[in-house]
Design a protein that fits this description.
By secondary structure, this protein is of the alpha/beta class. It is about 40% helix and about 15% strand.
């Protein structure tokens, strides 16, 4: 791995090889107003201080809150259909971000070009030692339950890694199955997304602990942090599980 890419990766993944990313890119693709992100800079500094290792967000939000994230590792996010790959890489370099992230929908009939687009992005970014993360949704955002299997997810993360991903972000298999097989097939560090908003912190923390036990290198959590009634406390609880090996029972006490 080139020095520049390794340096950027080490800003996001700490000495233990794990990371806690706060995802704040939802407003770029959700059709409704995203409650909790109207003022994206409101909690960002206390979330960072509480233990988040990086923020994943969009161009507009970076420009809006740049003064508050100067010392916070940043992942620049885009959708799969960005019109100019080279321009996106140049934008990331100009902003000084540490990683680029793109949505990838392997084997999707709705967006069949997403994997090829990602491969082009990975190649263009690699020329500048810029790491790239692929957010993988097998079969597309509306792939259906038939994609929610160890075999399907393993195949999808593998083809994405082969396309040049430095990091994979994807969902945990709540339906069961040996998630460690998915991790093994990813070839590169795999982080698990947070999923839908939950008012109950215990199941979320339990799922995070289980993901780590199965070999995931961290999590990328959005609504369950910045839409929580106590974002900093929630961040601290998750960070304790991710980086300190704190039991779920002890970690949840940060929220009491």
């Amino acid at each position: 791995m080139e020095f520049g890419k390794q340096r950027r990766m080490q800003r996001i993944f700490k000495a233990d090889g794990r990371t806690l990313i706060v995802a704040m890119d939802h407003a770029a693709y959700m059709p409704d107003v995203v409650v909790g992100l109207q003022d994206p800079g409101r909690y960002i500094q206390e979330i960072h201080a509480a233990g988040a290792d990086a923020v994943m967000t969009t161009l507009g939000t970076i420009r809006k809150i740049q003064a508050k994230i100067l010392d916070f590792p940043v992942i620049l996010s885009m959708e799969s259909g960005y019109p100019n790959i080279e321009d996106f890489v140049a934008q990331g370099l100009k902003l000084g971000v540490d990683m680029l992230k793109c949505m990838v929908y392997p084997f999707s009939s709705e967006d069949p070009s997403s994997l090829n687009n990602f491969a082009r992005l990975a190649n263009a970014a690699d020329a500048w030692s810029m790491p790239v993360m692929a957010e993988v949704f097998p079969g597309g955002m509306n792939g259906g339950k038939e994609w929610n299997t160890v075999e399907k997810l393993s195949s999808c993360v593998r083809v994405t890694a082969e396309a040049g991903a430095d990091v994979i972000k994807t969902f945990y298999l709540d339906a069961g199955g040996d998630f460690s097989r998915v991790v093994e097939n990813s070839l590169v560090p795999l982080v698990v997304l947070g999923g839908v908003k939950s008012d109950a912190p215990l199941p979320l923390l339990e799922r995070i602990a289980l993901c780590l036990e199965k070999g995931a290198c961290g999590v990328a959590i959005g609504r369950n942090i910045w839409a929580h009634k106590a974002p900093a406390a929630m961040t601290r609880a998750i960070a304790a599980v991710v980086h300190e090996g704190t039991s779920v029972g002890d970690a949840v006490k940060y929220l009491s």
